């Protein structure tokens, strides 16, 4: 179902502009983060100087409000930048996982076909051996011996191909398991970060409500 959804032509058209859009948003978040850092440093130094100078309370409260807003912008832009990078990494891992699952299915089909072919050749070999045991004609025996040798060589070749395919299948299975484990870890880390972000947002909202009061 998801493969049908992601095979829409719309996604292929959007994929051309996806990297440009991602880089643009990253640059924008970095600029906002650096601007928030500058504002925090600016109002922190002003806050210390005004506190030491013992100015009137209204000017001091105004500086505190500016400092609080700059800190809030710093937290928001920093978390947004980090979560955007996590989202990008998650999308990349999901794409790799989908490709590995597709190759895993193809390898499994190839292994099944090779197994069926090997069973077929082995059955033919057994029938030829039974025919050889019931015939005494030397010429026919020589021809069947040559055919049997060819069949043995073909069976050995198919066994070697089956072994290679089986090794590739196990390797792909291991890689898929590793990608699943890594994706699960990223999902747990993302949920943990979202919980911390919600708690920080609630604390910021409470602090802003107190300032308004």
TrEMBL record:
Cellular-component GO terms for this entry: endoplasmic reticulum membrane
Protein's GO biological process: apoptotic process; endoplasmic reticulum to Golgi vesicle-mediated transport; intracellular protein transport; protein localization to endoplasmic reticulum exit site
Keywords: Apoptosis, Coiled coil, Endoplasmic reticulum, ER-Golgi transport, Membrane, Protein transport, Transmembrane, Transmembrane helix, Transport
Membrane-spanning intervals of the chain: 74-91
Domain BAP29/BAP31 transmembrane: 1-106
All copies of domain Bap31/Bap29 cytoplasmic coiled-coil, residue ranges: 153-212
Compositionally biased region (Basic and acidic residues): 136-151
Compartments, as annotated in UniProt: Endoplasmic reticulum membrane
Region described as Disordered: spans on this chain: 129-151
One Pfam short name: Bap31_Bap29_C
Membrane-topology descriptor: Multi-pass membrane protein
Record function comment: May play a role in anterograde transport of membrane proteins from the endoplasmic reticulum to the Golgi.
Family: Belongs to the BCAP29/BCAP31 family.
Identification of the protein by name: Endoplasmic reticulum transmembrane protein
Gene of this entry: Bcap29
């Amino acid at each position: 179902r998801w493969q049908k959804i992601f095979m829409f032509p719309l996604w292929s058209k959007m994929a051309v502009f996806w990297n440009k859009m991602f880089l643009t948003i990253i640059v924008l978040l970095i600029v906002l983060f650096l601007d928030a850092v500058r504002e925090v440093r600016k109002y922190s130094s002003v806050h210390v100087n005004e506190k030491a100078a013992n100015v009137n309370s209204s000017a001091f409260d105004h500086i505190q409000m500016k400092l609080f807003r700059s800190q809030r912008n710093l937290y928001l832009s920093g978390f947004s930048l980090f979560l955007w990078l996590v989202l990008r990494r998650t999308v990349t891992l999901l794409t790799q996982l989908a490709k590995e699952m597709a190759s895993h299915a193809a390898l499994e089909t190839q292994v099944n076909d090779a197994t069926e072919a090997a069973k077929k050749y082995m059955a033919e070999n057994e029938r030829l051996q039974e025919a050889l045991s019931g015939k005494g004609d030397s010429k026919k025996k020589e021809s069947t011996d040559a055919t049997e040798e060819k069949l043995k060589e073909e069976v050995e070749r198919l066994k070697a191909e089956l072994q290679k395919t089986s090794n590739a299948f196990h390797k792909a299975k291991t890689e898929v398991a590793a990608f699943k484990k890594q994706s699960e870890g990223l999902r747990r880390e993302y949920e943990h970060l979202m919980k911390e972000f919600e708690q920080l947002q609630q604390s910021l909202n409470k602090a802003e409500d107190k300032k308004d009061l």
